Amino acid sequence: MKKSFMYFMLVFAILFGGVASVGAQSKALAKDVKKRVKELKKEGWTMQASTSTMDYALLKYRTYMEEDEDNRIAINGIAEGKNLKIGRENAIMFGISSYAGRAKAQIQGKLKGLLSADNKEATSEETDRFAAAYEMGVAAKIGGLVKQHFVLVRDMGNGKKEFNVFMSLDESRARKAREEAAETARQKAGLADLSQDVKDFIGEPIEPEE
Q1: What is the reported pTM?
Q2: Which residue, 34, 65, 77, 151, could crosslink 91 as a Cys pair with Cβ 3.0–4.6 Å?
Q3: What would the pLDDT profile of 109-129 be if each residue is shown by its tens digit?
Q4: Is the dihedral of CA 164, 174, 207, 55 positive or negative?
């Protein structure tokens, strides 16, 4: 009986400790969200066409991201537009283009040293052509993979508005898209097979915006 009681108390302590830890993390997240919302409102941002409050939308977004933080990538796009449709589409495209541009920058510096042994004589023009085609391919492929969460808007004067779209991207699907884009770019650039080092490097997550 005594052993059973001690076992029960141990399990209770573990469960209670886990709940307390999650509760502390939730409070910290809510506090961080409240601070960020205050900053966004001070910058003039408001929710666009939504019954949700900014606090709720951002908390839901941050919670979603942190539930699988190793596989969910935050993408943010900001652009101007005279109406919701055009402004939102411009912001989405800006976010996608920014991601693709970072993907290009991340691989471009490695190209000359990491291309396959059969391709050591690749010219600068060929590697530049590969990088440009890779950037375009990444942008095209992840366009259908991004998930939109919510949109903020603020007046810029002269009838113009600025739109801020919060999005996310699944890294496992994004990696496959980058790999496919790299293969298509290789063919367009007329390069030999990419080395395993290049393929591995392309598979690494893209660095977030600073």
Answers
A1: 0.81
A2: 77
A3: 777 665 544 455 556 777 888
A4: positive
